[in-house]
Amino acid sequence: MSKGQMLKKPAAVMLASMLAVTTAACSSGTSGADGGKESKPETNKPKDPITLVIKHTTYDTFDQDLAPAIKKYQEKNPHVTVKVDMVKPNQGENIITANTALFASGEQIDILRVSPNVGAGEYAARGWVVPLDEYIKKTGVDMTKYYPSLQTRGVYGGKRYAMPWIHSQFMIFYNKDMFQKFGIPEPKVSWTYEDMLNAGRKLIENKVHAFEASLPNMLHIVGGAWGGTTFNPNGSQMTLDSQGALKGFDFFRDMVVKDGLSPGKVTQAKGLAGGPSFAKGTSGMSFTWLKMKQFDEAGLNYGVVPAPVGPGKQQGYGALDGIALSSTSKNKEEAWNLIKFLAYDNEGQLEQIKQKITIPAFPKEKEQIEAWEKTINKKDVTDAILYQVEKTNDEGVGMMNNMPGTEVAFEGFITWLGQNLFNDNFDVYTQVPAKVKEFNAQWNDLQKEAEKQMKK
After folding, report:
1. Domains located in the chain, CATH noted
2. Smallest Cα–Cα separation from 343: which of 85, 73, 109?
């Protein structure tokens, strides 16, 4: 075959193809002898049905609390079905171990809840989640709408791997009826740790537990309340071995060991039964995250007050989940749309505010604040919580560390401290610094390993 013949054949084929396409286009656009009307492309063709799976480690009824927001999303997107499944760590496991097994199982995962005590960097380094920056840019998400302290949530290595989601605060709830009955002054925004100690003593005198077993949650803030800091400026190391932190832990130890504000030897010696519960009316106070839904259902007449004012600067303490896009999702665009609806769109946020599972995340969004106030319907409770939101934003405490290894190192330290601080002969000023040093060394190794993983 000559070169000319080789050139002619493709040309002929191309021409025939073009004519076929043109003929097809003409015939498809006409109807009958008079030429008919041009047909229009189907613009409202139904989308193929898909299922999106959210995996979380929150609590057993989280799917029920999230249901109204999910329902609203599915009404707007009828082709999408959303499943919310809990990942339950086995005995002795942590969240990282449980999620490692989850990804190894090959189960469908489209969206992950990043818990407050695990850094976004942990998920990113393990390849579980993908950066969201391009999705954010493409869909016009404005991160500056969030409280400033929330804006850094989910950022690691200069990229965003999680959106701020489920904004909460650790507060002290107190039983108003009980305080009135025993002549205990109701706590105010400016109350101190001495005020809290006196209130607890009075409750115990009347054979009522001061706090339920949730009191160790206060370990996250008490060090800072005496002038210590939780992390160094870049968040890579704990600084809970400072003198301020040690003084706070020492006060806290005395508060439990000597005065019995948490269930233990002191309360047992005074004849108080074990297992106190704020919801059941067997403790006068509870230091916990926002459990107003449970307390309302229990019919409690409760008040809320921020953590007490200590000698140092910290009073607020916040908890904040993240929501991330799984690297294994086969429907990433659709999954991002759901993430955006839950964590950013006002419509989705309002549904979650009404369920009392999140605080307004946008300080300038009037509709969010009004929905919150209407939902709570208690001015003193609303005022106290919004006050602490502002305090936490100003102080930047408790809003989760983004570094890899947080679950193993920082949370490991807090767990160790809660288990040992109240033991006989525990010495805060020697044992805490030694343990901080040990966990920081472990944390440093974990961060180096994560950096290696990110470069692969």
Report:
1. 50-167+319-393 (3.40.190.10), 171-315 (3.40.190.10)
2. 73
